[in-house]
């Protein structure tokens, strides 16, 4: 494995040698847009793990806690804008060298940067879905409903946490009111894949189909500690196509990489701009 911590040239050569790159992105791609990531350079959690799907669905207090923190966190998350890493990858697609971009992020910043062929592996945070009838609504619309139902919480502020969360410590969530679905009274949940929840099979199958057409794989800003993303690297390794990664610190796939660049995503990809 070649390690290129300071120079972009090996990565530029890697990209230049391949015409159908399958790109997988993670949280490190969006940190320069003001969205915190989950893990440190060793791949360990920086804070407590995100909410679990089973807990969210079965426990009203968990849902109140989640939505109270989200009410505060969404105000900045919803205003996030693409950074140079997103724009660089959009340029890569525009040059005709990107077979598909698969993102573990739920922020839709690749699309905002103009990237067209994107698979949102873990869903999208700008939508809310009813777990009863399946109806969806824009997150901004639900933000307004949350605010109307909890006006006294709108004066609070807290540090940003990953994916629109906020670090509200020692708050009493028992009085927080979470609106139900207007159509069926069902539980409303962000249209994202929580921990403990499966990625839809059709999403996985579509991504695997595109990976089969690729001649190389590029990982950008992911430690690959979550299996839902790591399995695509395993597939690429079985196909014996070369894999490069841009990530600050350890990844789960270090022993499978042909090239690793330990640099911030926007700096490593600057040659594409």
UniProtKB/TrEMBL annotation:
Keyword Metal-binding: yes
Keywords linked to the UniProt accession: Cytoplasm, Metal-binding, NAD, Transferase, Zinc
Annotated Deacetylase sirtuin-type domain residues: 1-273
Catalytic site: 122 (proton acceptor)
GO cellular component: cytoplasm
Catalyzed chemical reaction(s): N(6)-acetyl-L-lysyl-[protein] + NAD(+) + H2O = 2''-O-acetyl-ADP-D-ribose + nicotinamide + L-lysyl-[protein]
Binding-site residues for Zn(2+), renumbered to this chain: 130, 133, 181, 184
GO MF term (any one): histone deacetylase activity, NAD-dependent
Entry-linked InterPro entries: DHS-like_NAD/FAD-binding_dom (IPR029035), NAD-dep_sirtuin_deacylases (IPR050134), Sirtuin (IPR003000), Sirtuin_cat_small_dom_sf (IPR026591), Sirtuin_class_II (IPR026587), Ssirtuin_cat_dom (IPR026590)
Cofactor(s) annotated in UniProt: Zn(2+)
Family, per entry: Belongs to the sirtuin family. Class II subfamily.
HAMAP family (alphabetical): Sirtuin_ClassII
Protein name: NAD-dependent protein deacetylase
Species name: Bradyrhizobium hipponense
């Amino acid at each position: 494995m070649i390690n290129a911590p300071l120079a972009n040239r090996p990565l530029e050569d890697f990209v230049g040698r391949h015409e159908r790159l399958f790109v997988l992105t993670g949280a490190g791609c969006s940190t320069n847009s003001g969205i915190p990531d989950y893990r440190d350079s060793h791949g360990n959690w920086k804070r407590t793990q995100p909410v679990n799907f089973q807990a969210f669905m079965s426990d009203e207090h968990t849902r109140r806690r989640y939505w109270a923190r989200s009410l505060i966190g969404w105000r900045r998350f919803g205003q996030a804008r693409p950074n140079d890493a997103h724009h660089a990858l959009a340029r890569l697609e525009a040059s005709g060298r990107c077979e598909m971009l698969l993102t573990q992020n739920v922020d839709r910043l690749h699309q905002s940067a103009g990237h067209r062929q994107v698979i949102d592996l873990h869903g999208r945070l700008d939508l809310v879905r009813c777990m009863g009838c399946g109806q969806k609504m824009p997150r901004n619309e639900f933000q307004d409903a949350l605010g109307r139902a909890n006006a006294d919480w709108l004066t609070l502020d807290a540090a940003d946490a990953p994916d629109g969360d906020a670090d509200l410590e020692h708050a009493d969530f028992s009085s927080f009111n979470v609106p139900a679905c207007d159509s069926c009274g069902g539980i409303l949940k962000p249209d994202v894949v929580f921990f403990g929840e499966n990625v839809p099979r059709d999403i996985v199958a579509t991504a695997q189909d595109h990976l089969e057409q690729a001649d190389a794989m590029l990982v950008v800003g992911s430690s690959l500690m979550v299996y839902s993303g790591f399995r695509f690297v395993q597939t690429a390794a079985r196909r014996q196509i070369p894999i490069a990664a841009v990530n600050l610190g350890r990844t789960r796939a270090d022993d499978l990489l042909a090239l690793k660049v330990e640099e911030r995503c926007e700096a490593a990809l600057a040659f594409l701009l």
